[in-house]
Design goal:
Structural class: mainly alpha
Strand content: under 5%
Number of strands: 2
Oligomer: single chain
Strand order of the largest sheet: 1-2
Order of helices and strands: HHEEH
Largest sheet: 2 strands, antiparallel
Distance between the termini: 40 Å
Shape: globular
Radius of gyration: 15 Å
Helix content: 40-55%
Number of helices: 3
Length: 93
């Protein structure tokens, strides 16, 4: 089996992780929170969000996430929102 190239430790994102942890705590306390994560390709957005999703799921919070898809220099409008609603529709009756 090949070794993973992904570090099990999130490096260099202490400020961002703290902000996301604070947002999750506020959600669990009943507040409505929206989080948007942006940045250049390869800076660790997916990993950072993955850590938040894992923490939220451990706390029994519902997580809706969506990703952007780029095709020949353009994106699909509202693709992240469509991803979120598809996941929600599959999860609830």
């Amino acid at each position: 089996m090949a070794a993973s190239l992904v570090s099990p430790i999130l490096v260099g994102r202490r400020t961002e992780s703290a902000a996301l942890s604070d947002a999750l705590a506020r959600v669990l306390a009943g507040e409505r929170v929206t989080i948007v994560v942006g940045g250049e390709a390869g800076v660790g957005k997916s990993r950072l969000v993955g850590e938040l999703v894992e923490a939220a799921q451990t706390s029994d919070a519902r997580v809706l996430d969506g990703g952007c898809i780029e095709l020949e220099g353009g994106g699909i409008p509202l693709a992240p929102v469509i991803d979120m609603f598809r996941a929600l529709a599959a999860d609830v009756s």
